[in-house]
Each structure stands twice: as structure tokens, then as C-alpha cells.
Amino acid sequence: MALKQGDATVAASVPAAGVGTVVSKRRGYAGRTAEQLAAERRQRLLDAALSLFSERGFSRTPIELLCSTAKVTTRHFYEHFDSREAVLIALYEQINLETRATVMKALQVRGKTIEELMFAAIDAFVESCTVDTRRTRILCVEVIGVSSDMFERRRHAVHEFATILNLFTRQLVDAGGLPPGDYWHSSMALIGAIRELMIEWLMTKERPPIDTVHGQIKGLFRCLIAGAGALNREAAKLEA
Q: Which pTM value belongs to this model?
């Protein structure tokens, strides 16, 4: 069983990352068009932001340092981004897009049970977020407390991945693996638990293997399934 991507994606309600002036068409250089050169400069800025924001922190990284690290001028910076926060937003959205694609790819495998697919999606999510600890820090630490706009974007991303989990809970209900009920808030809580586990893993000086985190997350989901069944049985006894 494989989920279609459209079934597991929330309609985008948050605007794209803030950008500055649209780059006008100009002559290229060394066989590359002006548009290609602009795209390369933009990506260099994002690459520099990934390293600097994760090492120094977003609040302690001035635009001038971003530009010098990316080897671009401040004029070129403002052709792509209207602020330092716009760089963070673009980086955050890029990482989330890559993570979402990794999760959706894991869901295309056929011949797996609902529970196996659910755990494959969780594994893909955690793996994509932790394959580079700089990504983990951007996703889980540096975006906290930046602005109301960043808060809404983070909330939107949490809702997207919670929607995927909630699809699985509905399928588990249909298959008899979970008692009937609405598991949306449970899905949201589990996404929060996953992020907190990743933060704890990131901040630990002697990090355990990431497989340990995978095992803990799967244990949480099994607790949800077992607990919902136990509560349902207890309610049935009280009604009898």
C-alpha cells in the first residue's frame, strides 16, 4: 500500500520565503547565464547560512559575515533576500522540502503493512532531519523565538507531518488496529515528542546512535496504540 503525495500534504497556507528584488536579465559570465549565476549566489548564501547559523547561532550572524563566507556582495545579497530572517526562512523551507520528499519516497514502497509504512515514514523523517546535525539545529533550535512569521511557518510544517501520521491513525482505525476516534491531537503531540527527542540527541555531548532515537519514537507509537486499545476496553467494561 502506498500513499499518494497529494493525500499527505497540507495545502500551503504560508507564503514562500521573503525575497528581495527580482534579478533582472543580464549578460552571463564564463558560459553561464545571469540567471544561473544568480541561482549559484543564492545557494552559496544558503550554504553559508547552514554553517554559520548552526555554529554561531542565527542571532549572532550578521549579514556581512554571510556575504563574506558566501563570497557575494551585499548588493547581490539584497537581490535575493530582504533580510537575514528571509535567509533563515528560505533555509528552513528548503530543509523541510527535502525532508518531505524523503518521507514521501519512503511511502511509495509496496507490500508493507500500515504499521510498517508508518514506521518507514518516521524513520525517513528522523533520518532526513539528523543526517547532518546542522540541519537538526536549524529545524529544532535556531527557528525558535525568531518572529511571529517564523512561528507560523514552523507550525505549518508541524501540521504537515502530523497530517501524515493522522492518515495512518485513520487507516489503523479502519483496519481494526486502533479503536474508533479522532487522533489528530495525538499525532500533533507525537510530532512534538519527536522534535524534543531530536533536540535532546543534538545537545548531548556523547550522542548515542540515532537508531536509539528511532527505537524510542517507535516505542511512543506502540504506547499510543496499546493505550488506546486499553482505554477502549476499559470504557466497554464500564458501559456493560
A: 0.81
